[in-house]
């Protein structure tokens, strides 16, 4: 490749700096708000805190109610729902995607199409039916109910993603496994799933993040503060009675930390998984 | 160890009839090569033997046992795939021991079996590598090793050498031959390469359009091809086939002067291998040299014989030049029925 000229290099970097600043500006504002003792939206355009205190974090983390540590319970809710969503999503979508990838059965193409069609409707459209359904089966205000709703909404994407990946795994491997004495299930667990690790990681992370960040369904389906997930809790800091921007910002940072950690941990798989299937062989 | 028996095997995919009644007994310890052009059904037949395809009709026996409805893993056959199909997430050692592990054999026994085969195939330094870290030839050997470790009744090879470069392929041909001599296990080997078939097989089966054309030892297929298809498929360069008429004076090729003594009568297809000509001044045919391909030790002449084009192999160095007219004498003749393409048998007592 040709070596870019000096002036071009400088121009590129100026551009990069501008874009980085644009991207980071709102994030820095969140940090400013979280660190100020009297957080407000006034006081200059620069996201530099006027004083530094950790009180906002202390307040958010230390929320209690008559039963004890409320924030802890809510954090647990979020983790529980997100992990359960990821697990259920993985089990359902991996098995569904494998059968769609490998077997030709009546209705197969319709099923693949149907999975895609469901992606055309925003989740909010199904809010009322879902509310009624959960009410009928007694899963309103229940973490299991919320996780079920989340995993069903994330399954279509996961199935598509995994089917695409399974399609790239050569059938000869399964035939070799069959000749080596594997049953269908052994082949799936000992050959296919280990090979699909990158795609499985992507799907798990995607489901986890969907559940972790989701607000509208959680706010509608969860009535009791002790069953809130963190996005609903965050919303509580800025409501019609006033806005505690400091707590909101501190909460936002706390909420985004686990996702960032997960993302870094799975980053390698993530990149591999997203490009998977683009090159056959 | 066991032989194979196929009785009236048919394979259909809906309307498509791929295998049209295969009958064959393969003795224990035979090296059978299935050969034919692409789409002839040879791979399908191998996959039927492996159990990867269901048999539509007929019986398949391994040893004395009918295995039509036996799962691939329970047939005690091992297959080497064209793509090798090594498990990419397992090391060479784990790949080779995989079948034994699935069969729940003790770890010590698996390790011993893998070590023994790895030593024979010079795979010991590679045992802890992943297939992705191996060269094509090494992968091929691992695929062989994985099959051998299982000590199967029958080996099934699906074009195992087709992904190797020419020199490695001829090296592995010799290795395969050695392997067969040492293991004395029945091998069924599919290839489209007739050199592979001629060099490896104890018997060759030529398939075309799902029908067996001829089964026999390589020498027999080469010397007495059962029909024009086998005649042209086995042997390289391919046999010349010319339309001819036979009567008391001998055979006369259509549009060419000169009769050759032969017992065949009426309209026939006359076959002569490019290697079975002699260039001599008292030859019966006169031909123009169109093109010469010089191959080193030999030269392949492309000739115009009357209205026909034929190829003739001569030893180098040869004084023959392009554009020259030469006289030829065919030494070995094969006569086939013009309508059916079937070989016209030699009269009793005669040798061809």
List keywords for this structure.
heterodimer; A: 281 residues; mainly alpha; MetI-like fold; two-stranded antiparallel sheet; two-stranded antiparallel ribbon; disordered C terminus; B: 352 residues; alpha+beta; Rossmann fold; OB fold (Dihydrolipoamide Acetyltransferase, E2P); 6-stranded mixed sheet; 5-stranded antiparallel sheet
Describe the secondary structure blueprint for this structure.
The complex is a heterodimer of chains A (281) and B (352).
Chain A: H1 6-35, H2 55-61, E1 64-65, E2 68-69, H3 70-102, H4 108-118, H5 127-136, H6 143-168, H7 171-179, H8 184-195, H9 197-213, H10 216-221, H11 230-237, E3 238-239, E4 242-243, H12 245-275
Helix pairs in contact in A: 1-12, 2-12, 3-6, 3-9, 4-6, 6-9, 7-8, 9-12, 11-12
Chain B: E1 4-13, E2 16-26, E3 31-35, H1 42-50, E4 57-62, E5 65-66, E6 77-80, H2 92-102, H3 107-120, H4 136-149, E7 154-158, H5 166-183, E8 186-191, H6 194-200, E9 203-208, E10 211-216, H7 218-223, H8 228-233, E11 240-247, E12 250-253, E13 259-260, E14 266-272, E15 277-279, E16 285-294, E17 298-305, E18 308-315, E19 325-330, E20 334-337
Parallel strand pairs in B: 3-8, 3-9, 6-7, 7-8
Antiparallel strand pairs in B: 1-2, 1-4, 4-5, 9-10, 11-12, 11-14, 12-13, 14-20, 15-19, 16-17, 16-19, 17-18
Helix pairs in contact in B: 2-3, 2-4, 3-4
Report on the structure:
The complex is a heterodimer of chains A (281) and B (352). With 281 residues, chain A is mainly alpha-helical. In chain A, 71% of the residues lie in helices and 3% in strands. Chain A has 2 domains: 6-53, no CATH class; 71-275, Orthogonal Bundle (MetI-like fold). Chain A contains 12 helices and 4 strands. In chain A, the strands form 2 sheets. Chain A has a two-stranded antiparallel sheet. In chain A, strands 3-4 form a two-stranded antiparallel sheet. In chain A, a hairpin with a 2-residue loop joins β3 (238-239) and β4 (242-243). The radius of gyration of chain A is 23 Å and the shape is globular. The relative contact order of chain A is 0.13. Mean pLDDT of chain A is 87; it is low at 277-281. Chain B has 352 residues and is of the alpha+beta class. Chain B has 2 domains: 4-229, Rossmann fold (3-Layer(aba) Sandwich); 240-337, OB fold (Dihydrolipoamide Acetyltransferase, E2P), CATH 2.40.50.140. Chain B is 24% helix and 34% strand. Chain B has 8 helices and 20 strands. A 6-stranded mixed beta sheet of chain B has the order 6-7-8-3-9-10, with helices on both faces. Chain B has a 5-stranded antiparallel beta sheet with strand order 13-12-11-14-20. The interface between A and B is medium-sized, with 16 and 23 residues.
């Amino acid at each position: 490749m040709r070596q870019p000229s000096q002036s071009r290099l400088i121009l590129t970097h100026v551009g990069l700096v501008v874009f980085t600043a644009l991207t980071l500006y709102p994030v820095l504002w969140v940090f400013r708000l979280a660190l100020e003792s009297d957080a407000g939206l006034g006081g200059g355009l620069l996201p530099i805190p006027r004083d530094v205190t950790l009180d906002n974090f202390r307040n958010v983390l230390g929320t209690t109610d008559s039963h004890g540590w409320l924030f802890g319970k809510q954090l647990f809710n979020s983790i529980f729902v997100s992990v359960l969503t990821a697990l259920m999503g993985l089990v359902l979508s991996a098995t569904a995607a494998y059968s769609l990838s490998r077997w030709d059965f009546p209705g197969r193409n319709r099923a693949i199409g149907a999975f895609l069609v469901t992606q055309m409707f925003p989740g909010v459209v199904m809010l009322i039916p879902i509310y009624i359904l959960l009410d009928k089966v007694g899963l309103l205000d229940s973490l299991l109910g919320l996780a079920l709703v989340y995993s069903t909404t994330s399954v279509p994407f996961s199935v598509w993603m995994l089917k695409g990946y399974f399609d790239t795994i050569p059938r000869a491997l399964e035939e070799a496994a069959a000749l080596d004495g594997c049953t269908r299930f052994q082949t799936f667990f000992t050959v296919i799933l280990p090979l699909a690790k990158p795609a499985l990681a992507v799907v798990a992370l995607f489901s986890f993040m969907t559940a972790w960040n989701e607000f509208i369904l959680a706010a509608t389906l969860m009535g009791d503060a002790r069953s809130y997930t963190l996005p609903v809790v965050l919303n509580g800091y800025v409501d019609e009675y006033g806005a505690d921007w400091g707590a909101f910002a501190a909460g936002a940072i706390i909420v985004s930390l686990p996702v960032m950690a997960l993302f870094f941990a799975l980053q390698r798989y993530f990149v591999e998984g997203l490009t998977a299937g683009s090159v056959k062989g | 160890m066991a032989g194979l028996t196929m009785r009236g095997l048919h394979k259909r995919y809906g309307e498509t009839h791929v295998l049209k009644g295969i009958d064959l007994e393969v003795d224990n310890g035979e090296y059978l090569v299935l050969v034919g052009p692409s789409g002839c059904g040879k791979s399908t037949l191998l996959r039927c033997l492996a159990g990867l395809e269901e048999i539509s009709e007929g019986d398949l026996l391994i040893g004395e046992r009918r295995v039509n409805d036996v799962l691939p893993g329970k047939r005690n056959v091992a297959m080497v795939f064209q793509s090798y199909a090594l498990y990419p997430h397992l090391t060479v050692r784990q790949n080779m021991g995989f079948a034994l592990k699935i069969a729940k054999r003790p770890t010590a026994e698996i390790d011993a079996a893998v070590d023994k085969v790895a030593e024979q195939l010079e795979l010991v330094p590679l045992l802890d590598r992943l297939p992705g870290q191996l060269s094509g030839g090494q992968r091929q050997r691992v695929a062989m090793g994985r099959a051998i470790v299982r000590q199967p009744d029958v080996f099934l090879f699906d074009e195992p050498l087709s992904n190797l470069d020419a020199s490695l392929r001829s090296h592995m041909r010799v290795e395969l031959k050695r392997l067969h001599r040492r293991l004395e296990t029945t091998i069924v080997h599919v290839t489209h390469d007739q050199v592979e078939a001629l060099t490896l097989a104890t018997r060759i089966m030529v398939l075309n359009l799902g029908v067996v054309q001829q089964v026999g030892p390589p020498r027999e297929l080469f010397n007495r091809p059962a029909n024009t298809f086998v005649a042209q498929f086995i042997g390289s360069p391919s046999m010349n086939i010319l339309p001819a008429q036979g009567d008391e004076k001998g055979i006369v090729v259509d549009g060419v002067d000169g009769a050759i003594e032969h017992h065949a009568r009426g309209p026939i297809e006359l076959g002569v291998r490019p290697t079975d000509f002699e260039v001599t001044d008292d030859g019966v045919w006169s031909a123009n040299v169109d093109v010469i391909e010089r191959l080193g030790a030999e030269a392949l002449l492309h000739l115009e014989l009357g209205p026909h084009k034929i190829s003739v192999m001569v030893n180098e160095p040869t004084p023959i030049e392009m554009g020259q007219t030469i006289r030829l004498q065919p030494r070995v003749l094969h006569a086939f029925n013009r309508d059916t393409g079937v070989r016209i048998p030699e009269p009793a007592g005669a040798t061809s």
